[in-house]
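Dear colleague,

Following up on yesterday's call, I've attached the two folding results inline so they're easy to grep. Please treat them as preliminary; we haven't cross-checked anything against experimental data yet. The first protein's sequence and structure tokens come first.
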Amino acid sequence: METLIAAPFFVGWGTLALINAGLAQAKNRSGLAWFAISLLLGPLGTLLVVVLPKGS
């Protein structure tokens, strides 16, 4: 029963990581690296990707 409750949480967390990877690539940063960072940090990773300036 607990897995049915936790499943949407993990789907949302993974979707957020994919969105963050796209945002990072738009800012000339490594999408794969930010995907991994976002899996660990979740919404905090989103904040970092949005606030940090564009990469060179």
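Below is the second protein, in the same order (sequence, then structure):
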Amino acid sequence: MTEEHGLVAAYVAGGRGRQLRPVMIPGNGVEVEVRAKSDSHLPFARIELATSRAPWMTEPLPAAAIQWACALTAASLPERNPYPSLYSALDGLLEAICHAPSARGWLAGMVAYEAMVLRELGYGGAKPDMEADLPAQFEAFRALHRPIRDYLLASHARDVMAARVALGERLKRMIE
């Protein structure tokens, strides 16, 4: 995802190989050089790691949050439509997940990001109370489950919503 071009699908030669597999982790920031023979062909991309979020992928709660934020973004946004506000919000959310000492530091941001995706794609979505306590933030997170499933991810909800369910289960254990 780029600020100017939105989501851009491309073929990364060796993307599953030993050298590039650590770069292809969801949430990592990469520098990309994209080349296409024509507009109708899938472009080729050469990538280089710019920001690694791999250390947080070993922690269950941050890993689940990063996986969900990236899955939501990739599955719901149309290709090649720029959403500069969503790009900035996603970057801020990923930074918060990686640098906050606990979910208390980023759960409100996750709820705000989900609501923002709903609003940007025309499905409404009220702005959450960022000052609410953790149980209230978790309830706001739970309240967004149905609109995300039914509107944003209606065509492939089962696959992508599994990441959200996993995150919700981890958050529930933390709150109880």
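For the second protein, one point worth flagging: The longest strand covers residues 44-51.

Best wishes,
A.L.
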